[in-house]
């Protein structure tokens, strides 16, 4: 997939419609490259994420993605107890959650 951060670009044949900032484009599973065209005078910045399928099962709960439900349970437990890489999560809040709390209180 491609996520456009800034600017406007054409991803694929030059006749395709341009995609602007904050748009996500899903690419097909064929081929080994993508052509990108910047049709404006402004810089184009984007993130390209690609890979080959690995044929493993996928389990997902919210932002957590693992291979099994048991791994999801263990990860949620780690998150709730601030262990195994989540040590700094105890004092972290997303800007979205802070805004929602202010909206709820106000």
Task: Annotate the secondary structure layout.
Layout: E1 2-6, E2 8-11, E3 19-20, E4 24-25, E5 36-38, E6 45-48, E7 59-61, E8 64-66, H1 69-81, H2 95-105
Antiparallel strand pairs: 1-4, 1-6, 2-3, 2-5, 7-8
Verbal overview:
By secondary structure, the protein is an alpha+beta fold. It has two domains: 47 residues, no CATH class; 46 residues, no CATH class. It is built from two helices and eight strands; from the N terminus they run ββββββββαα. The strands form three sheets. It has a three-stranded antiparallel beta sheet with strand order 4-1-6, with no helix packed on it. A hairpin with a 2-residue loop joins β7 and β8. The protein is flat and about 50 Å long. Pfam families: Pirin_C (PF05726). It comes from Aegilops tauschii subsp. strangulata (Goatgrass).
- Strand elements, count: 8
Backbone structural class: alpha+beta
Q: What proportion strand?
A: 15-25%
Total domain modules: 2
The percent of residues in helical segments reads 10-25%
The mean pLDDT is 88
Rg, alpha carbons: 19 Å
Note the main sheet.
Answer: 3 strands, antiparallel
Main β-sheet, spatial strand arrangement: 4-1-6
The oligomeric state is: single chain
Which term fits the overall shape? flat
C-alpha termini separation:
39 Å
Please tally the helical runs, counting DSSP H or I stretches of 4 or more residues: 2
Element order, helices and strands? EEEEEEEEHH
Q: Which runs of at least 5 residues are low in confidence (pLDDT < 50)?
A: none
């Amino acid at each position: 997939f491609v996520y456009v951060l800034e600017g406007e670009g054409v991803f694929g044949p030059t006749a395709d419609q341009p995609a602007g900032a904050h748009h996500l484009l899903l690419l097909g599973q064929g081929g080994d490259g993508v052509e990108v065209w910047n049709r404006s005078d402004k810089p184009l910045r984007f993130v390209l994420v690609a890979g080959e399928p690995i044929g493993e099962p996928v389990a997902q709960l919210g932002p957590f993605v693992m291979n099994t439900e048991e791994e999801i349970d263990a990860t949620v437990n780690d998150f709730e107890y601030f262990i195994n890489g989540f040590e700094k999560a105890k004092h972290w809040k997303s800007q979205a959650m802070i805004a929602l709390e202010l909206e709820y209180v106000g």
